[in-house]
């Protein structure tokens, strides 16, 4: 029986230990960086689209 109690205590410790590791934080940071890059790229595409629309209006 003592072996079973040790396993249960280990499982309880794993459930309680919710701290983020450095690796977890690095993955989250990389994901946020990709998201920021996508928004910046989208912003550039919209700016180019707006500039092209303004150019066409001036020619008319």
Layout of strands and helices, then pairs:
Blueprint: H1 2-16, H2 22-59
Major sheet details:
none
Oligomer: single chain
Q: Uncertain regions: pLDDT < 50 for 5+ in a row?
A: none
Instruction: Give the SSE string.
Output: HH
**Which percent bin holds the helix content?**
over 70%
The end-to-end span amounts to: 87 Å
- Radius of gyration, taken over Cα atoms and rounded to an integer in Å: 26 Å
How many strands appear in the DSSP assignment?
0
Kindly list the characteristics that best describe this protein.
mainly alpha, 0% strand, 60 residues, 2 helices
Structure at a glance:
The chain is an all-alpha fold. It has helices at residues 2-16, 22-59.
Structural commentary:
- By secondary structure, the chain is mainly alpha-helical.
- The chain has a domain at 20-60.
- Helices cover 88% and strands 0% of the residues.
- It is built from two helices and no strands.
- The protein is rod-shaped and about 80 Å long.
